[in-house]
Each structure stands twice: as C-alpha cells, then as structure tokens.
C-alpha cells in the first residue's frame, strides 16, 4: 500500500461548487499498510521482511524502490499483473486533512497467488523471531493464508501478532496476541465499547474465543492488555498534542511485535508500543520512530508526575470519570511527614490493587492536632509534592479534618486501603465504601519503620535507624 500526502494551503472556495480550493505546494509518498509496519521496524533497526502483493503499476514499482531505500529486500513481494496497487492520497492543509482518495482492488487474490504467498512464507520464516500480520482487508489474507501462517508458526513456536480488520476475530484464533481498536472490538461483539468497563468484558470474550492475548488500543485512553489468567493492565495515553493519527496503529504493531520478537514480557512490549504510538501522533503524515525517539518517549513516560495535587471537588469529578470507565479507584491516607521505605511499600502495594490511587493527606492543622504542636516537620505543600512525584500515586488531596471520612464519602473509591495495624472495622470509611459495593484491603507494614519514632530519635540526637 502506498500513502501519498499532498500538502498545500486553502485560501478560497471554488466558484464551481461549495468546496475549498487547495493550492498544492508539495507532496510526499510513504509506505502504507503493512509497508508502514515494516518501515517502522526498519527505523528501529530490526531485521525484517515483507510478504505482500502489489500491482504491476507505478505505485507498485514505487513501493519496491522505497523498500530498497530502507534496506529491505523487496524480492518477497509478489507482483500481480492484473491487480492495482492500493494508493491512498490525502490532501492536507496546515495540520488538517481535507480529503482522502483511494485507488484499490480488495477482491480475493485467487488460489494461484495464495499458493505463492504460502510458499514464500515457508521459505523465509526460519530467519525471523516473530510474525506481524497487518490485515487491511485488501484481499491478501484469506482464510487459507491466515490458517497456514498461524498454525505453521505455532508448530515452530514463533509468536504471531495480528492487527485485525475482520469483524470475526476468531479468524485469527491461535495467534499469540490480537491488537484490535475499540471499534473493531465493538464490531466483533455487536455492542459499542463506549467505556473501559464494557471494553473489558468484550476483550475477555475475545480472549476466550480466540485463545489469544488482546492488546486493545483505546485512542486517547491509551491501551489495555488482557492475558489469560491475569489482571487487565491499563497503559495511559502519553500524547499531549496530536497532529496526525495516520499510521499510529502500524507503529504500535511494529513496536509491540519487535518487543515480542526480542522476548520481552508482553506487558513490557505493550508499554513500549503505547509510548511509541503517543510519540508518533505528534508527527505529520504516516511517520516512524527511531530507536532514540522511542527511548525518549519511554523516558518521558517514566518521568515523575509533579503536580498531581487538587481540591476535593476536582478530585471527585476525576474519580467519578474513572469509575464511569469501569476502573478501580483506590484510596489511602496519612500524614506522610517524613516519607520512608514503609510508606513507599504501602503505596506500591496499594496501587497494585487498583487502576488509579488517590492519597488523602492530612493538612498542617490536622497533623498538629493529631501529632502535637511540633509537627509536621514538612509543610503540607512539600509533603503533597513529594507524594505526587511517586509513580504509584495518581492524585493527592489535602484535607483538614482529623479523619478522611468526609473526603472518602465525597470520592467514594472502589478500594479502601490501609495498613494491617488496623482491623477492617476500625478503618475510617470502611462501612461507607463497602455499602457502596467497594472493598477494604489491609496491607502488611514494613516492621521497624515509623515517622514518629524517626522524629523522636532525631530530637534525641540519635541515628534514625540502626
């Protein structure tokens, strides 16, 4: 598939019809479809090959030349003289795509070309560690071809990752992972996947009926990974500015497949794919990422999130949105005057029990009433900023009361989390959360670690810990 981008400016409306007139100033061709997946793999310096069908035409010849230009042997391509190469031409003014014109033949290829595809695949597969199937429903991936590729790879223990286009995902049954988007998953189950809760049920059904893991792409909501016998993992979107989503799914497929080929854990490969997709949509056109760009994108995801501090009203709106999406919202609280390893462990374990973690932080006045006039050591603004910089924490809310009961009632989390030095009945807010259908979790404390004890030892001129 060839993607052609024609760039220009619009300054007037046509006198012939109520349509804009674009003055074309430049054009740029890129490999599209499976070719764009390959271009992304090549940009990441992966050894890769492409089995695809092109026509005996100008666009097909251009695809072959472009493969050679990125260091990929084009001889695996099959030229079908009676077929037109898919060409998608986009007209772009500024960052706005005005129109797309498609030239293509999506009819079935026929038995003879199917046999050529299978023969080339069988001859080449021993060189590769994984197979990425990019199905654009253009006639190449028939039932026969799909079944042969997936079953042959299973026999060789070679992972297969599929970006689907068919409504029936069971056509890809037996693949290692299938990467649908929200609309493709909705088409499979026949119900709109309007939020993450419905998407979760749909993905679990797809997983059960295909025997494959599901990497669900959620556009501005990131990605969600579903694996048999494991909890869903949600990767939040990383893009802050979106200029062009053309080919973002191809980038995600390429990075995810490369990670699987490198024998990364599936969640690690998904994290890389999510970060890469978030970076590539900031570029115009069907774009790729270099290794350095992917490394920067991953580093940006890992940066501490300073500033996740807000008031009760804003927190309540955000928590309500998360719950509407079917996400588990955790809540824990404390003074966090001198953050120590015990605090970090509790927060880490708390986050493992939810999708988003909110921390209620006692204000300076509240701490003074509870701990005495010489506390807190750190002011509430500093304590809040430290907590917000911890990866496990999504939101920090400061409260003035002696207990977080009113805050808990305002937020109504689905998971209430405290240290195991409490009994469940003694946890503030437990009754309210359970009455709302939530759960209470008690986490074992790290022995010997206490802020109060540390402050006392400092005041006595002693070491904090022996």
């Amino acid at each position: 598939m060839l993607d052609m981008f024609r760039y220009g400016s619009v300054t007037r409306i046509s006198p012939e019809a109520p349509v804009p007139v674009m003055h074309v100033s430049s054009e740029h061709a890129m490999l599209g479809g499976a070719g764009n997946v390959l271009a992304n793999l090549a940009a990441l310096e992966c050894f890769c090959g492409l089995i695809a069908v092109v026509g005996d035409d100008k666009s097909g010849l251009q695809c072959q030349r472009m493969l050679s230009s990125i260091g990929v042997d084009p001889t695996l391509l099959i030229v079908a003289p009676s077929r037109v190469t898919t060409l998608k031409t986009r007209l772009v003014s500024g960052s706005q795509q005005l129109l797309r014109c498609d030239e293509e033949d999506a009819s079935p290829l026929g038995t003879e070309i199917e046999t050529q595809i299978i023969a080339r695949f069988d001859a080449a597969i021993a060189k590769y560690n994984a197979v990425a199937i990019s199905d654009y429903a253009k006639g190449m991936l028939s039932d026969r071809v799909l079944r042969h590729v997936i079953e042959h790879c299973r026999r060789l223990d070679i992972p297969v990752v599929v970006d689907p286009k068919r409504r029936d995902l069971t056509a890809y049954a037996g693949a290692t992972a299938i990467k649908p988007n929200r609309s493709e998953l909705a088409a499979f189950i026949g119900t709109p996947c309007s939020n993450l809760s419905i998407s979760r049920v749909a993905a679990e059904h797809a997983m059960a009926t295909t025997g494959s893991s599901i990497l669900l792409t959620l556009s501005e909501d990131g990605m969600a990974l579903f694996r048999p016998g494991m909890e869903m993992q949600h990767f939040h979107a990383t893009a802050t500015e979106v200029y062009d989503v053309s080919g973002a799914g191809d980038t995600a497929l390429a990075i995810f497949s490369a990670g699987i080929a490198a024998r990364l854990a599936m969640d690690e490969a998904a994290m890389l794919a999510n970060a890469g997709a978030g970076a590539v949509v900031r570029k115009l056109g069907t774009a790729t990422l270099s290794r350095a760009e992917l490394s920067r994108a991953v580093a940006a995801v890992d940066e501490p999130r300073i500033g996740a501090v807000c008031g009760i009203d804003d927190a309540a709106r955000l928590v309500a949105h998360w719950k509407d999406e079917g996400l588990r919202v955790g809540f824990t609280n404390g003074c966090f005057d001198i953050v120590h390893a015990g605090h970090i462990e509790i927060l880490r374990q708390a986050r493992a029990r939810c999708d988003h973690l909110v921390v209620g932080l006692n204000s300076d006045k509240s701490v003074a009433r509870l701990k005495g006039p010489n506390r807190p050591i750190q002011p509430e603004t500093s304590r809040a900023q430290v907590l917000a910089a911890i990866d496990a924490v999504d939101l920090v809310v400061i409260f003035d009361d002696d207990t977080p009961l009113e805050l808990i009632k305002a937020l109504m989390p689905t998971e209430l989390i405290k240290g195991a030095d409490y009994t469940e009945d003694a946890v503030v807010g437990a009754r309210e959360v359970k009455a709302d259908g939530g759960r209470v979790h008690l986490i074992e404390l790290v022995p010997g670690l206490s802020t109060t004890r540390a402050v006392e030892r400092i005041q006595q001129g002693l070491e904090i810990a022996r």
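The domain at 2-302 is CATH 3.40.1190.20 (UDP-N-acetylmuramoyl-L-alanine:D-glutamate ligase). The mean pLDDT is 89.
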